[in-house]
Amino acid sequence: MKTANQSIKPITTKINDNGNLEIGGCDLVELADKFGTPLYVFDEATIRSMTSSYKDAFKNYPNMKMMFAAKAFMTKAICKIMQQEGFGLDLCSGGEIYTAKTSGFDMSKTLFNGNNKSYDDLLLALESGIGTISVDNFFELALLNSIAKSKNQTVRILLRITPGIECHTHEYIQTGHLDSKFGFDLTQIDNAVELIIDEYKNLNLVGLHAHIGSQIFEKKVYFDEVDVIFKEIKRIWDKYSIVLHEINLGGGLGIKYTDKDMPISVYDIADTIIESIKIHSEKYGLDEPTVFIEPGRSIVGTSGITLYTAGSSKQVPNGRKYQAVDGGMSDNARPSLYQAEYTVQIANKPDSVADQKITIAGKHCESGDILAKDIILPEINEGDIICFYTTGAYGYSMSSNYNRVLKPAAVLVNNGKSDIIISRQSYEQLCESDVIPDSLN
Ligand code: LLP
Question: Is the pTM for the entire model greater than 0.85?
């Protein structure tokens, strides 16, 4: 069955009677007018369609724990949606823990990841009642145990391992191959387990965790990942008589940014994972474990779009046509960071014939601030509203104030309603952390 991550546009996208693009029952030109641009727009129906697809696809596997990877898009409103959908949260910083906690999220359904959690991060995690911590390395084992001991607490932990699986995605977002900054190498697991048994009495080891990468289009890597994890669980059982009954397979399911992308459906991933678990449980004589997954991009990526207003343009004599917009690499770092490509439409004339080769440039002071290179679009005029699809994941979450450009607002649309979920940053907020020392006054 097809799932929303396989489409470029949010599921409610249409052209309305005004001839404009509409999402969630809201006219995008009116949204731009009301809230200003750049503007992130999130379609609630698409987010919920993805969470529903995940729940449905795994419904025959009872011990399933879905955790939304908050790094893809984290705000208090998203925490509320995830709570309503019965999802937990995969958190990876003190800031994400704080956001979840202050949104009123049930912290027992959270998991804390990261390769360099600090003393303060871990303390906050414990004080916030985090559900499980995925411990990444020896340094963290010792640190976490000492904090837990000082608080007279026992912490549920997973060990993050590097499964040695390479998937075909951008080098920066591959994480499961052996030469990686994340997790214990397979040869280090026994040492970690022995330390937990002998010394770290405040750590309760319940399972193993791996994450093989992001924007993945292949099923087989998930099958293999389960295989690697089961082999380790079996070995640990044979050697130490410890039953590890929880496994975390990470996230990674890809989405469709352009017609060149062919992501698979949530059902494909679910069937592959469940099949691999059944095969390997039987093969190794182990009970079927509790399984965590941590999808981020596939839950929110397709739901989000960014609206810009067209400004200046430049025709290089015998060269490119540049059209500048009022945002750029500060609201979407992905094109400059990963050469990511996007699908673009003009919200106020989506039906016009696309017959021009245009490069959409951001407003930042560097030549690399290009949002889309040499794409085919209708003629753009100043004031046109330009819609970039699939910016819902890792757009806002990687945004910056480069050039002291303000961070855009985000609205959640549904059934004709549009609610602000992130207010547009103000100049006062921009400067609120700045301090002029007395010596400079
Ligand atoms: N779990 C762990 C441990 C992760 O490191 C990640 C993503 C996820 C889950 C969620 O993966 P997803 O389902 O979103 O693929 N900034 C990059 C993506 C970096 C992904 C980092 N880790 C981008 O914009 O493409």
Answer: yes
